[in-house]
Design a protein that fits this description.
The protein is of the alpha+beta class. It has 13 helices and 14 strands. Strand 3 and strand 4 form a beta hairpin. Helix 11 packs across helix 12.
Length: about 400
């Protein structure tokens, strides 16, 4: 059974393994980190992982102790400039490999969502700067991040980081889907909100052997089905076959007799080209009641043995990614960055996801308290993650399980 010390050793070992292949993760492999410095590769990686909301100088004082002979803020910036953001992305992948996923009926449940990360104002950064508009009279800088989050394991698994000026969420999810590894003896299920209901993503998931479950707007649902919702029962569960093509001319269609099944690719669609003019897919479309006046539409490729009640339950679980974003941004400070440089911002966004997973694994080591037969105490995640961050810095040497269990609530 893993404990806080073993989890910390795993993370430190993964950082050390990156150093063994350091030429892949630094800008100048022949020069970077070849001389002895106060901030060698492993140290600077841990320091960026553990950054809080203070200035760099204060962070260095807290990390190394209030002594005279500590690295300066300038030396920190010089050392971090040598590291590629991909080092932290690779660290996320390697750290996750040590922990088995928790499954639901043989499925790993991955929630997908996008989020905006506001950055310090920097008009010179053309990648992230947004010109003045109704949202901001002076303009602002932002990144758009699309993530995959393992709901049952409480763990970020992957992300695509784009300029906020062109936040193409379905395209980002296609990239994430293509990167999913199907090894491990289990299937993957991606649950996403309305912004991801796109035929291109459905096709990428089908080709990859991944299940999906996406909420769809009423008009999108009507377009997929080919009928108005008013013409159908209040609640339904149906399977439709759709053929995607870029040609609007019926004469070019292979099955013009099945005209109702065709849908025109108005935007990009990766699986229709000169050699393959059509792409067919089966979609299961559900509509169920969630309140007296509200209904939800779900598009999926899950088999029929997943009942509408089960699908409804699964979609409700997606909300956990929203609470994880709140913890990532505010508790761990993913929006409190220490630079305006784009590559440093990427470092810190990836580092916060690694830190989140590190803290989440340690929190799982706590024991749940019970009060009587019905009431259960929950751990205060915000306090627990703050303790875990100090544990990573080696500031806390006491039994952090005991410390975290002091912060429970009903």
């Amino acid at each position: 059974m893993k404990n806080p010390n073993s989890i910390k050793k795993i993370l430190c070992k993964d950082i050390k393994s990156l150093e063994k292949n350091i030429q892949l993760f630094v800008k100048n492999p022949e020069k970077d980190f070849t001389r002895n410095r106060k901030l060698p590769f492993q140290q600077i990686m841990k320091l960026i992982l553990a950054l809080e909301k203070e200035t760099i100088s204060n962070e260095l004082f807290k990390y190394f102790g209030y002594e005279a002979d500590i690295p300066t803020a300038s030396s920190f910036c010089q050392q971090r400039a040598k590291i590629l953001p991909e080092a932290f992305r690779e660290l996320l992948y390697r750290f996750n490999q040590h922990f088995k996923p928790r499954l639901f009926r043989g499925l790993r449940i991955l929630a997908c969502d996008g989020s905006e990360f506001r950055l310090p104002l920097n008009e010179k950064d053309k990648v992230t700067y947004m010109k003045p508009s109704s949202r901001s009279v002076i303009g602002y800088n932002a990144l758009h991040v699309v993530v995959l989050y393992d709901i049952l394991a409480d763990r970020y698994t992957d992300a695509v980081i784009n300029s906020f000026a062109k936040p193409n969420e379905p395209r980002g999810l296609c990239q994430l889907t293509d990167r999913i590894e199907n090894s491990g003896g289990y299937k993957n299920l991606i649950i996403a909100d309305r912004g991801f209901a796109a035929y291109n993503f459905f096709a990428h998931a089908i080709e990859k052997g991944v299940y999906f479950m996406v909420r769809a707007k009423d008009d999108n649902t009507e377009y997929m089905i080919g009928k108005k919702l008013d013409e159908l029962p209040d609640q339904f569960d149906m399977t439709v076959h759709r053929i995607l093509t870029k040609s609007k001319s019926v004469r070019n269609w292979k099955k013009p007799e099945n005209k109702d099944q065709y849908r025109i690719c108005k935007n990009y669609f990766d699986f229709v080209n000169e050699s393959n003019s059509e792409y067919g897919m089966d979609l299961r479309v559900l509509r169920f009641k969630i309140s007296e006046t509200a209904y939800e539409n779900i598009v999926t490729n899950l088999p029929a043995d997943f009942s509408p009640a089960t699908i409804k339950k699964l979609y409700e679980m997606r909300w956990k990614i929203e609470t994880s974003f709140c913890t990532l941004k505010h508790t761990l400070g993913a929006t409190t960055l220490h630079s305006k440089k784009y590559e440093y911002i990427l470092q810190e966004v990836w580092a916060r996801m690694v830190l989140y997973n590190f803290c989440a694994e340690i929190i799982k080591c706590t024991r749940v308290k019970k009060s009587g037969k019905r009431l259960k105490y929950k751990i205060n995640v915000s306090q627990a993650m703050k303790i875990c961050r100090q544990f990573l810095k080696s500031i806390i040497e006491a039994d952090i399980i005991i410390l975290m269990e002091k912060f429970f609530y009903q």
